[in-house]
Specification:
This protein is an alpha/beta fold and 1182 residues long. The chain has 43 helices and 23 strands. It has 5 domains: 329 residues, no CATH class; 145 residues, Calcium-transporting ATPase, cytoplasmic transduction domain A (Distorted Sandwich), CATH 2.70.150; 224 residues, Calcium-transporting ATPase, transmembrane domain (Up-down Bundle); 153 residues, 3-Layer(aba) Sandwich (Rossmann fold), CATH 3.40.50; 158 residues, Calcium-transporting ATPase, cytoplasmic domain N (3-Layer(aba) Sandwich). Helices cover 58% and strands 11% of the residues. Helix 25 crosses helix 37. The radius of gyration is 36 Å and the shape is globular. It catalyses: Mg(2+)(out) + ATP + H2O = Mg(2+)(in) + ADP + phosphate + H(+).
C-alpha cells in the first residue's frame, strides 16, 4: 500500500510536456502584458505598481497567508475526526507543499493532493485516514467551487455580462464539480471492480484508485464533516477574492466586492482546468477582462492581478518547493526500486537474480557500489544540513512576521530600516544554525560509538558491520536480541520469533519461517519477511536484505518508536512556555497596534514597532542555546563514558528521582562464575558438568555469560572432556526459559536431548530424577527435597539452574519433546557484589535518587544481593503477586517497595508506569532483550555498550562501562544542563518581558515611539551574544544536590516579578531622561537603548545563581562577552554605525544616570531573587 501512495517524480517522457506548458503560460502572460501596455500608458502602469499603499498590501498579505492556514485546518479537521492529531503549523506547511506540486504538475489539483497524502503517510498516519483526508478535501473543493461559481454566474448575469460563452463554460464546470462532489464520497471505500483493476495498469490512476478504495466511508460520507470541510474550502475562495479586492485598494481603485468576486471565480475556472501551470497567462487575461466589467481600468486590473499572482503563486513557490522536496525525492526513490514490490512471493532464485546476489552474499566492492543508492535515515550532508537549519530558523512564525514587515518597509522605500531588520534577522538565524549544525554533528559522532551492528556475509566470510552499511543483496545472520537492519526475505529460520509490534501492533512475538506467501499478503501475513527496526526474540535466522534505509516499511513511518522517542517532560515544559509567550505577545501586539493607530501614529512605524516588540519578547536564540547546552553536556558525558542517544533526555536524567535496575552487572560485578555442577543430591558431579558443557558449547542461539562461565569452569576442571555431534537445537526463549540441544554421544546408544534452564521451568517438564546411576520417579517428596536445596543456595546468593535429559529416537526435536525428562542436577553460579557499589548507592541517595531493584531472579537471591549492598528491603513483591494486582494497587505499593523479584518483561514496564503515575521521574538501567519495553517506557532509559542491539536502541543513554558511578556522573551533567537552560529562560522572560512591557506602556504616553524597531532588534541581538555563553556556565553545587523538574508556574511567577521590577526601573529611566535631554527623541532613544541593554547584561549575573551574584564565579566566555558587549553598547552611539540605527552621542550626565539606575536595579533584583527562590524552595518541600 505504501508504494501506491507515494508521489512520484514525473517520468522522463512527461517532463518535456510539463516544461512546454510552463513556456506556453509564460508566453501567454507576456502577450497579455504587452497587449495591456498597448492599451494603457506604460508609465501609468509602472506608477500604479510603485505607489501601491503599504497598509493595503499588508492586508492582502495577511489574507493570502490565512488561505494556507485554513487549508491546513481543513486537513486537521478530517484527521481529528479520524482520531489523529496534526499541529496547525505542520498542516499549513502541507498546504504550501500542495500549492507547489499543483503548479509544477498541472492536474486540476490532484497532483498536489497525492503529494500531501504521501507526506501524511510518511508521518505514520494510517493509510485509511490519509485517504479519507484526500477524498473529503477533494469533495469539499468541488462543493465550494460549485456554490461559489454559481453565485459568480448569477452576479455576471445580473450585471448584464452573462454571455453564452460565460454561461456555457461555467455551467459545464459546475456540472463537473457536482458530479465529482457526489461521486468521490460514494465510491470511497468500495471494493475494487473489474474496471478499476484494468485502470490500475495506468500508473497515476493506480495511485488515485488506491487512495479512493482505501478511504473510510464513515468519514467520507459524514455529512457534518463534509459540511465543515466545504465551509473551509468556501472560506479559502472568499479569502482569495478578498486578497484581490485589497490589492485593488492598494493600487488606488475601489470596486464593489461582488463584481470582484465574480471576476475572480470566472478567471479561476481557467486556472483550474487548464494544462498551463496555475493557469499562467490565462488567469491574468480572464481576470483583467472580467474586472473591466466592474469598471476597473486595464492598468489597475493588471497591476492588482499581477500582485495577486506574486502573493498567491510566485512567493509561496520557494517555500513550497523546499517543503515538497521530500515528496519528490520519495517518488524518485520508489521509481528506482531494485526489486518488484512483492518480493515476499517470488521464488528465491528469482529474488537472488534481481538483486544480483546469492546464498554467499555480496562482494565488498559490489556492496560499496550500492551504498549511494540507499537513502539512510541519518546521513547528514554539511551544506544541506546547514541550509535546512537556516530555513527552519527563518520559517518560525515570528521571524516570518518580521520579514513581512521588512518587505513592507521596502515597498514604502524605507531602504535602510528594511536592510537593518533583514541583516539582524539573518545574523540571528546564522548564529542559531551554526550552533545547531555543530551540535548535531557532534552528537552524530558520539552515536556512532554505540551504533547497532550486523553480522553480514561479505567476500565469503562473516563480518561485523554497522547496521547502516547493510545494502540490498546482503545476507545477514541473526540471533536472539538482534535488531533487524533491513527489510528482507528469510532464507533460513530456526525457531525464529520476532517482536514486530513497532509496525503491526501485535502484542506477542510472531514466528517467522523460510516459506513463500501470496503476492497479495498484507504486512502482518508476510511470515517469511523480517522488517527493519523490529527485534528478534529467539531462535536463529538468515536474512536476504531487500530494502534498506528509507526504502523500508519503517522508512515510510519516519516518526516511529526507534526514530522518534516520546515527548520528554522538558519538551512538554518548553511547549507550555511557548504557549505562554504566544498569549502574552498576542495581547501586547494587539494593544500596541490598536492604541497607537488610534493615536494617529505613522502606520508603518507602528506596525514595525509592534512586530519588533513581539520579536523582542521571544527567546529567538533558545533553540541555539538549547542545542549548544545539550551538546556541550553530551560531550562532557561522553568524556566520562556515557553516550547520549536522545539529546533531550539529558534534562530528564537531571530530574530523575527514582532509578530502577537489575542487580546483575550493576550491583554485582556482572562476571558470572560457575561455582559448582552438582547432582540431585547436591554432590559434585562430572557427569552433570559434561552435559552442561555440551549444552552450552553446542547451542547457537542467544549468547549469554552463563554459558561462557560453564565453558571456563569446564576448561579449568576437566580439560580432557570429549565432545559430541550436534543434531538439532531448541533455542532459549523467555517464555519457556529453557535451552535444549539434541546430540549424538559416542558413549550413548541413542541420541540424547540435554535441557538446561531455570530450575522451576526444568522441573515442570521432568518426570524422573537421576540419583547415582539410578533413574527414579520424581515424586512429591523428591521435588520438595530439590526445592529445599534450591532455597538454601538462593538464600546464600547463588543463581541456580537445573539440568535434565532424555533419550530420543530421531535426529530432530521440537518443543513438544521437552517432556518426561530425567532431572540430572544443579548448576550454581555466583556473581559477587561490585566493589564500591554501596558507596555509589549512598551517593545517589544524597542526590535525591532512590534505587529500586527489578529482577527476574529468585526472590531469595535478589534479597541477599540487595541487603549486601546496603538497600533496605522491608518487603519483596514478586511477579506472581504483580500479576494478581490491579493497577491502582501497584501504583499505591510501588513507591514504597525497593525490591521486585521474579518479574517478567511486561511487569517491568508496569512497575515503571506505576511509579510515573505517582509523580516520579523514573530511570531504568537494563541490557537484555526483556528490558527493551521498560527502557522505552522509562523517562530515562540507560543501557550499556555490550547490551543486545534492541536494548541499546530503546535507551536514551549508553554506558561504555557497566558502572553505577557513571550514572551518578550523568545525573550531575543532566542537572548542570538543565540549570543552564533555565538560566536563559529566566533571563529572557524577566529582562525581555520587562523591557517590552515598558516600551508598550511608554508608547501610549510619549509623543514618539520610545525605540525604533531596528533599535529593539539590535538590542535583542546584542544581549543574546553573551547568553550563548550560558551553555558552558558553571552551576552551583548546592543546586545539583537535588532533582529539579520543569515548573511552568514558577517560570510564570519569575517572569511577572522580575518583569515588573525591570519595568519599574525602565519607567524611572523614562522619567529621568526628559529632564536630561529635553525634547529630543533621538537622544531619548539613545539613552534608553544604552540603559536597557546594560541592565539586561547585569541581570544575567543576578539570575544565573541562587547565591549572591558576587559569590558565584561565572564561566569565562559569559564574563568576557558581557564586558565586551557592555563596552560596545556605551561606545556605539559615538560611532558611524550608531548613526545607521539612529543613535546619537550621549552627554556625560545621561551616562552617569544610566550607571546609577543600573546599580539600583542590580541591588533590587538581587534582593528579589533571594526572596523568590527561598519561597520557591519552601513550596517544593513535601
Amino acid at each position: 500500500m505504501h508504494d501506491a501512495f507515494d508521489s512520484s517524480a514525473p517520468t522522463e517522457h512527461a517532463r518535456p510536456l510539463i516544461w512546454l506548458s510552463w513556456l506556453l503560460g509564460a508566453a501567454m502572460l507576456g502577450a497579455l502584458v504587452v497587449g495591456v501596455l498597448q492599451l494603457a500608458d506604460a508609465s501609468h502602469f509602472a506608477l500604479v505598481l510603485s505607489q501601491a499603499e503599504p497598509a493595503w498590501l499588508l492586508v492582502a498579505i495577511a489574507l493570502q497567508g490565512l488561505t494556507y492556514v485554513v487549508q491546513g485546518q481543513l486537513y486537521r479537521q478530517v484527521l481529528t475526526a479520524a482520531g489523529t492529531s496534526l499541529p496547525l503549523w505542520d498542516a499549513t506547511k502541507l498546504s504550501l507543499t500542495k500549492l507547489f506540486i499543483d503548479q509544477a504538475l498541472p492536474s486540476s489539483g490532484f497532483s498536489g493532493a497525492v503529494a500531501v497524502v504521501a507526506l501524511l503517510q510518511r508521518r505514520g498516519i494510517a493509510a485509511s485516514q490519509v485517504s479519507s483526508c484526500f477524498i473529503v478535501s477533494v469533495s469539499a473543493y468541488f462543493v465550494a467551487y460549485l456554490l461559489a461559481l454559481g453565485a459568480a454566474l448569477f452576479i455576471a448575469i445580473d450585471s448584464g455580462h452573462g454571455s453564452l460563452a460565460v454561461i456555457a463554460t461555467s455551467a459545464a464546470f459546475m456540472l463537473f464539480c457536482g458530479l465529482m462532489a457526489i461521486a468521490a464520497p460514494l465510491i470511497a471505500g468500495l471494493p475494487q471492480g473489474a474496471l478499476a483493476r484494468r485502470l490500475q495498469h495506468v500508473r497515476w490512476m493506480q495511485r488515485l484508485l488506491a487512495m479512493v478504495f482505501a478511504a473510510e466511508p464513515r468519514l467520507t460520507r459524514n455529512p457534518r464533516l463534509l459540511s465543515w470541510a466545504s465551509g473551509y474550502s468556501l472560506l479559502i475562495i472568499l479569502l482569495d477574492a478578498l486578497t484581490l479586492w485589497a490589492l485593488l485598494h492598494a493600487v488606488g481603485h475601489a470596486a464593489p466586492f461582488a463584481g470582484i468576486f465574480a471576476s475572480f471565480m470566472l478567471a479561476s475556472v481557467l486556472r483550474s482546468v487548464g494544462i498551463v501551470p496555475g493557469g499562467l497567462g490565462a488567469f491574468e487575461a480572464a481576470a483583467v477582462a472580467t474586472l473591466s466589467w466592474a469598471g476597473v481600468p486595464l492598468a489597475a486590473g493588471l497591476s492588482a492581478t499581477l500582485l495577486f499572482r506574486v502573493l498567491s503563486f510566485w512567493l509561496p513557490m520557494l517555500p513550497g518547493f523546499w517543503l515538497s522536496r521530500d515528496a519528490l525525492r520519495a517518488g524518485a526513490a520508489d521509481h528506482h526500486e531494485t526489486v518488484t514490490p512483492d518480493y515476499w512471493s517470488q521464488p528465491l532464485d528469482e529474488l537472488y537474480a534481481s538483486l544480483k546476489s546469492g546464498p554467499g552474499g555480496l562482494a565488498s566492492d559490489a556492496a560499496a557500489a550500492r551504498q549511494p543508492s540507499v537513502r539512510r535515515t541519518y546521513r547528514p550532508n554539511l551544506a544541506r544540513q546547514f541550509g535546512a537549519s537556516l530555513l527552519r530558523q527563518l520559517s518560525s512564525p515570528l521571524v516570518l512576521i518580521l520579514l513581512i514587515g521588512a518587505l513592507v518597509a521596502l515597498i514604502a522605500h524605507d531602504w535602510l530600516d528594511a536592510l537593518i531588520v533583514l541583516a539582524i534577522v539573518i545574523a540571528s538565524a546564522l548564529v542559531g544554525s551554526l550552533h545547531e549544525v555543530r551540535s548535531n554533528r557532534a552528537i552524530a559522532r558520539l552515536r556512532e560509538q554505540v551504533a547497532s551492528r550486523a553480522d553480514v556475509w561479505r567476500d565469503g566470510r562473516l563480518q561485523s558491520l554497522a547496521a547502516d552499511e547493510v545494502v540490498p543483496g546482503d545476507i545477514v545472520e541473526l540471533s536472539a536480541g538482534s535488531l533487524i537492519p533491513a527489510d528482507g526475505r528469510l532464507v533460513e529460520a530456526r525457531d525464529c520469533f520476532v517482536n514486530q509490534a513497532l509496525l503491526t501492533g501485535e502484542t506477542f512475538p510472531v514466528q517467522k519461517q523460510a516459506i513463500r506467501v501470496a503476492s497479495d499478503a498484507a504486512l502482518v501475513q508476510r511470515d517469511n519477511c523480517l522488517f527493519r527496526g523490529t527485534s528478534q526474540r529467539s531462535g536463529t535466522a538468515r536474512l536476504l536484505a531487500v530494502r534498506c534505509g528509507l526504502h523500508t516499511e519503517l522508512g515510510h513511518i519516519e516518526r516511529s518508536l526507534v526514530l522518534r522517542p516520546p515527548e520528554t517532560e522538558f519538551e512538554r515544559g518548553l511547549r507550555q512556555f511557548g504557549g505562554l509567550l504566544l498569549r502574552v505577545m498576542l495581547v501586547m501586539v494587539t494593544a500596541v497596534l490598536g492604541l497607537n493607530l488610534f493615536l494617529d501614529r505613522p502606520p508603518l512605524d507602528t506596525l514595525m514597532f509592534a512586530i519588533a516588540l513581539a520579536v523582542g519578547l521571544s527567546p529567538e536564540l533558545l533553540p541555539a542555546i538549547l542545542s549548544a547546552t545539550l551538546s556541550a553536556g553530551a560531550r562532557r558525558m561522553a568524556g566520562r563514558g556515557v553516550i547520549v542517544r536522545h539529546l533531550n533526555a539529558i534534562e530528564n536524567l537531571g530530574a530523575m528521582d527514582t532509578l530502577c535496575t537489575d542487580k546483575t552487572g550493576t550491583l554485582t560485578r556482572g562476571v558470572v562464575a560457575l561455582d559448582g555442577a552438582l547432582d540431585a543430591d547436591g554432590q559434585p558431579s562430572s557427569r552433570v558438568l559434561r552435559m552442561a558443557w555440551l549444552n552450552a558449547s553446542l547451542q547457537t542461539g542467544l549468547h549469554n555469560p552463563l554459558d561462557e562461565a560453564i565453558g571456563d569452569y569446564a576448561r579449568d576442571k576437566a580439560p580432557a572432556m570429549t565432545g559430541a555431534d550436534k543434531l538439532d537445537e531448541i533455542p532459549y526463549d523467555f517464555v519457556r526459559k529453557r535451552l535444549s540441544v539434541l546430540l549424538r554421544d559416542a558413549s550413548e546408544p541413542a541420541p540424547r536431548l540435554i535441557c538446561k534452564g531455570a530450575l522451576d521451568n526444568v522441573l515442570q517438564v521432568s518426570a524422573f530424577v537421576q540419583q547415582g546411576d539410578a533413574v527414579l520417579p520424581l515424586t512429591a517428596e523428591r521435588r520438595e527435597a530439590l526445592a529445599a536445596r534450591f532455597a538454601a543456595w538462593s538464600a546464600a546468593g547463588y543463581r541456580v539452574l537445573g539440568l535434565a535429559w532424555r533419550s530420543m529416537e530421531g535426529e530432530r526435536c521440537t518443543v513438544d519433546d521437552e517432556q518426561a525428562l530425567v532431572f540430572a542436577g544443579f548448576l550454581l553460579f555466583f556473581d559477587p557484589p561490585e566493589p564500591g557499589v554501596r558507596e555509589e548507592l549512598a551517593a545517589l541517595r544524597e542526590l535525591g535518587v532512590a534505587v529500586k531493584i527489578i529482577s527476574g531472579d529468585n526472590r531469595l537471591i535478589a534479597r541477599q544481593v540487595a541487603e549486601s549492598v546496603g538497600i533496605d528491603v522491608e518487603r519483596v513483591i514478586t511477579g506472581a503477586e504483580i500479576g494478581q494486582m490491579r493497577d491502582e494497587a501497584l501504583i499505591n505499593l510501588a513507591p514504597r517497595v525497593s525490591l521486585f523479584a521474579e518479574v517478567d518483561p511486561n511487569q517491568k514496564e508496569r512497575i515503571i508506569r506505576a511509579l510515573q503515575k505517582t509523580g516520579h521521574v523514573v530511570g531504568f538501567l537494563g541490557d537484555g532483550i526483556n528490558d527493551a519495553p521498560a527502557l522505552h517506557a522509562a523517562d530515562v532509559g540507560i543501557s550499556v555498550d555490550n547490551a543486545v542491539d534492541v536494548a541499546k536502541e530503546a535507551a536514551d543513554f549508553v554506558l561504555l562501562r557497566h558502572e553505577l558511578g557513571l550514572v551518578r556522573q550523568g545525573i550531575d551533567e543532566g542537572r548542570r544542563t538543565f540549570a543552564n537552560t533555565l538560566k536563559y529562560i529566566y533571563l529572557t522572560t524577566s529582562a525581555n518581558f520587562g523591557n517590552m512591557i515598558s516600551m508598550a506602556v511608554a508608547s501610549f504616553f510619549l509623543p514618539f515611539l520610545p525605540l525604533l524597531a531596528k533599535q529593539i532588534l539590535l538590542n535583542n541581538f546584542l544581549s543574546d551574544i553573551p547568553a550563548i555563553g550560558i551553555a558552558g556556565d558553571r552551576v552551583d553545587a548546592d543546586w545539583s544536590r537535588t532533582p529539579h523538574r520543569w515548573d511552568i508556574g514558577e517560570v510564570r511567577r519569575f517572569m511577572i516579578q522580575f518583569g515588573l521590577i525591570s519595568s519599574a526601573f525602565d519607567l524611572l529611566t523614562f522619567g529621568v531622561l526628559p529632564y536630561l535631554v529635553g525634547e529630543h527623541p533621538e537622544l531619548f532613544r539613545s539613552g534608553w537603548f544604552v540603559e536597557s541593554l546594560i541592565t539586561e547584561l547585569v541581570i544575567i549575573f543576578v539570575v544565573r545563581t541562587h547565591k549572591p551574584f558576587y559569590r558565584s564565579r561565572p564561566g569565562r566566555f559569559l564574563l568576557v562577552s558581557s564586558l565586551l558587549i557592555a563596552l560596545l553598547t556605551v561606545l556605539l552611539p559615538y560611532t558611524p554605525i550608531g548613526g545607521w540605527f539612529a543613535l546619537q552621542p550621549l552627554p556625560a550626565s545621561v551616562l552617569g544616570a544610566v550607571l546609577l539606575i543600573t546599580l539600583l536595579y542590580a541591588a533590587c533584583s538581587e534582593w528579589t531573587k533571594q526572596r523568590f527562590f527561598a519561597q520557591a524552595s519552601g513550596s517544593r518541600q513535601p
